[in-house]
Amino acid sequence: MASNVYRNGTGSHKGAMRPLAASNSSNVKSSSFKSRIPPSSNHSPGSAPLRRCNSAGGSDGVPGRVRVSVRLRPRNAEESVADADFADCVELQPELKRLKLRKNNWDSETYEFDEVLTEFASQKRVYEVVAKPVVESVLDGYNGTVMAYGQTGTGKTFTLGRLGEEDTSARGIMVRSMEEILANVSPETDSVSVSYLQLYMESIQDLLDPANDNISIVEDPKTGDVSLPGATHVEVRDERDFMELLRTGEAHRIAANTKLNTESSRSHAILMVHVKRSVLGAEDVIPSETDKSSHFAKPPKPLVRKSKLVLVDLAGSERVHKSGSEGHMLEEAKSINLSLSALGKCINALAENSAHVPVRDSKLTRLLRDSFGGTARTSLIVTIGPSPRHRGETTSTILFGQRAMKVENMLRIKEEFDYKSLSRKLEIQLDKLIAENERQQKVFDDEVERINLEALNRVSEVERNFAGALEKERLKCQMEYMESVKKLEEKMIENQQKHGCDGFMQDKCNREGPGSSIVEDVAEVKKLLEKEIHMRKEAQEEVNKLKSQLGQCPDSGEGGGSEILKLQKALADEVRQKKKLEEEMIILRSQMLQLTFEADQMRRCLGRNGSANAYGGLDSPMSQVRDSLNGHKTPVAALFEQVGLQKILALLESEDANVRIHAVKVVANLAAEEANQERIVEAGGLTSLLVLLRSYEDENIRRVVAGAIANLAMNETNQELIMIQGGINLLSVTASRAEDPQTLRMVAGAIANLCGNDKLQTKLRSEGGIKALLGMARCGQPDVLSQVARGIANFAKCESRASTNGIKSGRSVLIDDGALPWIVQNANNDSSPIRRHIELALCHLAQHEVNAKDMISGGALWELVRISRDCSREDIRSLARRTLNLSPIFRAEMRRLRIE
Ligand code: ADP
Ligand code: MG
């Protein structure tokens, strides 16, 4: 009813007020509603331009006049009787859509309507001509109104509200409309909800919630849309729901009217059906450039149509004029009048195209604002009775209908963007994009990982190649070294053979041109060592480079952990490699120092032309000490400082036989210097050496180990340690098995040193030390024999001391163990060291009378006599003489033999 949207379609409606002759105007055109509605964009989105009305009011509406039908109720029982003699006050010409209102027997007025429904019109037909086009419009997104107007008892409720529960053909417009709507909406995308209200005395009651009895009308100031937010909206899914709802509403209506002491004909019943449908709009044209680069094609615009069907069963129209005169309470009459008369005034104003339409005068007109002069498709059915007694009412009803026919609405589709659905769709699109992004990220991560792996593989390949090259180089160095050692040994043997067996060092010293060859070897090994160091440096640089390259690899996020593990592993390999190289270096250094040491010895030997010892210390241990004290450090001592004792000792347990033997040699050399002995023993070197002696059958190892032990055995504390750790037994066993004279010399030297310890006498004998010592004499090598003799002399001296001090009694253990024959036999040995030791041993034995008889019978007396006369050493000579003189037994025997 808003005047601002009123469109006077023809401007010639006034004629409708007049009898037929004057009403032949455009407002009675027989064109159906439907033909004037644009094709639905719901079914064919692109087929017609969308009339998008977001209720803010564009100007692109479609004119749509209010359609008005008239329905005649059949005579009821009462009328059949009372009006039996009278003709009906109206005569219908349905085919002409005309109604003749009889004034009297000879005069009548004819009115034309959009539909004329006789008393025989079925409910179905009434629905189809009155409501169906409106319902279809609502389904298409337009608001719609079907309203019944008429005197009480003329069939408004019959037409609109019959439920037809027993007889479905009797169903009224409400049920049929709902049926049609429900049949056409999609439960997935659309929704239908219903409010059911009663307007009585300007107050709106909720028939679905009777407690809610003063619902206010809210108008959107922008769009002018009217809504009742306080009313109950019940979602309807099927007809059963709806019937139930209507029944509830009806029951509440009766209850409310009872309470208010009124009747339904005095109130207006309003059923509001809200239909919300989702449709897809036409796609917008998007610039093709962005289209191509974009990941998603712009989806068709989701639209939502929110239309409303309002079905109004008005209060009886008779009250407009009859109230008050029929004794109704004034207030009620005023209120009922208010809404209906306001409706009449608005329709008049609209029909006459008045400047002012008093919409705001009543709640009914406010509620129906969109239905008359608004945007809704509106169909009015006016109901009349046949009785001539109500001619006045009938006439006024017909005139109301005629005026309403002049009201032109401007239909607008209630369509807007479906932001919710659009947002849902965009969310789905976003999800898709996120998934795609994740997939691409994964591909990227995989690629990064692959590159990392490749880099690592390359690194390890380089490392492998490098390690291989290093190993080759190492083997080459070793081979060269072994060869040079072999050459040296060959030369040595050659020299020995040339110059006879004149002592180990003697041979060495007498070699032809010893200095030059060794110096060459040393230079060569030095060169190798430098090369090795250079290669190691390069390797280290390479490793550092690779490490920094790895560090620069892009961080692959969560894969970083495994990356780090991999790097750590590579690093650990690197460290192992480095350690191996270090070992290599130590070996090479020790090799070099060994050679340097030997060369040094050789040079010194040549210089002095005196006697020295390969491992030092056996015959004259102090000579080594002297050297080291001489101001400049020995090469071995230098090695000791460079490499560190622990590292050298650790190499004793190396799995590489070559490494082991070199380490033993180095330790042996170190042990030759008194200054180192204590440190070696403290660092566990002695124990390691004994373990080696116990566990290795290898003659070379045994020889050098025995040498090292011999050197350590010079020290008294070490002697005891050797004894405690089972060393005597070990040396005895080694002595019995060894064939190599050098090994035997070393073992004999070690035992000889032990023999000089007073505390070890008993143990030495009980563990087979004496027997082992004597056993070694079997080899006949002067060096070995010299050590055996020294041992026996040492032992005899200690034993003699013990006997003198009263610690020991009885015959000499040496005699018990059968040493005497060997002593006597070698007492006059060509080798002066042997001879001298034996001479001393004989003197010590002879000092105790218990031994005298055995010595005499064993032929020792003769030797003693010889010593006392011929020994080159003055001290020994006089010792022998003194001893003989002091022994009564010897003297007696000498007298007997007439020896002076
Ligand atoms: P209103 O709602 O206009 O007051 P009702 O719909 O209550 O009138 O109708 C009054 C009576 O007339 C009811 O008994 C109803 O059944 C009957 N009636 C109305 N219209 C018709 C019709 N077209 N055919 C048969 N009976 C009708
Ligand atoms: Mg009624």
Automatic annotation (TrEMBL):
<dbReference type="Pfam" id="PF00514">
    <property type="entry name" value="Arm"/>
</dbReference>
<feature type="compositionally biased region" description="Low complexity">
    <location>
        <begin position="23"/>
        <end position="41"/>
    </location>
</feature>
<keyword id="KW-0175">Coiled coil</keyword>
<dbReference type="Pfam" id="PF00225">
    <property type="entry name" value="Kinesin"/>
</dbReference>
<keyword id="KW-0505">Motor protein</keyword>
<dbReference type="InterPro" id="IPR019821">
    <property type="entry name" value="Kinesin_motor_CS"/>
</dbReference>
<dbReference type="GO" id="GO:0005876">
    <property type="term" value="C:spindle microtubule"/>
</dbReference>
<dbReference type="GO" id="GO:0008574">
    <property type="term" value="F:plus-end-directed microtubule motor activity"/>
</dbReference>
<dbReference type="InterPro" id="IPR011989">
    <property type="entry name" value="ARM-like"/>
</dbReference>
<feature type="domain" description="Kinesin motor">
    <location>
        <begin position="65"/>
        <end position="407"/>
    </location>
</feature>
<dbReference type="InterPro" id="IPR000225">
    <property type="entry name" value="Armadillo"/>
</dbReference>
<feature type="repeat" description="ARM">
    <location>
        <begin position="643"/>
        <end position="685"/>
    </location>
</feature>
<keyword id="KW-0493">Microtubule</keyword>
<dbReference type="GO" id="GO:0005524">
    <property type="term" value="F:ATP binding"/>
</dbReference>
<dbReference type="GO" id="GO:0008017">
    <property type="term" value="F:microtubule binding"/>
</dbReference>
<feature type="region of interest" description="Disordered">
    <location>
        <begin position="1"/>
        <end position="67"/>
    </location>
</feature>
<feature type="repeat" description="ARM">
    <location>
        <begin position="684"/>
        <end position="727"/>
    </location>
</feature>
<feature type="compositionally biased region" description="Polar residues">
    <location>
        <begin position="1"/>
        <end position="11"/>
    </location>
</feature>
<dbReference type="InterPro" id="IPR036961">
    <property type="entry name" value="Kinesin_motor_dom_sf"/>
</dbReference>
<dbReference type="GO" id="GO:0007018">
    <property type="term" value="P:microtubule-based movement"/>
</dbReference>
<keyword id="KW-0547">Nucleotide-binding</keyword>
<feature type="coiled-coil region">
    <location>
        <begin position="522"/>
        <end position="598"/>
    </location>
</feature>
<dbReference type="InterPro" id="IPR047149">
    <property type="entry name" value="KIF11-like"/>
</dbReference>
<feature type="binding site">
    <location>
        <begin position="150"/>
        <end position="157"/>
    </location>
    <ligand>
        <name>ATP</name>
    </ligand>
</feature>
<keyword id="KW-0206">Cytoskeleton</keyword>
<protein>
    <recommendedName>
        <fullName>Kinesin-like protein</fullName>
    </recommendedName>
</protein>
<dbReference type="InterPro" id="IPR027417">
    <property type="entry name" value="P-loop_NTPase"/>
</dbReference>
<comment type="similarity">
    <text>Belongs to the TRAFAC class myosin-kinesin ATPase superfamily. Kinesin family. Ungrouped subfamily.</text>
</comment>
<dbReference type="InterPro" id="IPR001752">
    <property type="entry name" value="Kinesin_motor_dom"/>
</dbReference>
<dbReference type="InterPro" id="IPR016024">
    <property type="entry name" value="ARM-type_fold"/>
</dbReference>
<keyword id="KW-0963">Cytoplasm</keyword>
<comment type="subunit">
    <text>Interacts (via C-terminus) with NEK5.</text>
</comment>
<dbReference type="GO" id="GO:0051231">
    <property type="term" value="P:spindle elongation"/>
</dbReference>
<keyword id="KW-0677">Repeat</keyword>
<dbReference type="GO" id="GO:0072686">
    <property type="term" value="C:mitotic spindle"/>
</dbReference>
<keyword id="KW-0067">ATP-binding</keyword>
<dbReference type="GO" id="GO:0090307">
    <property type="term" value="P:mitotic spindle assembly"/>
</dbReference>
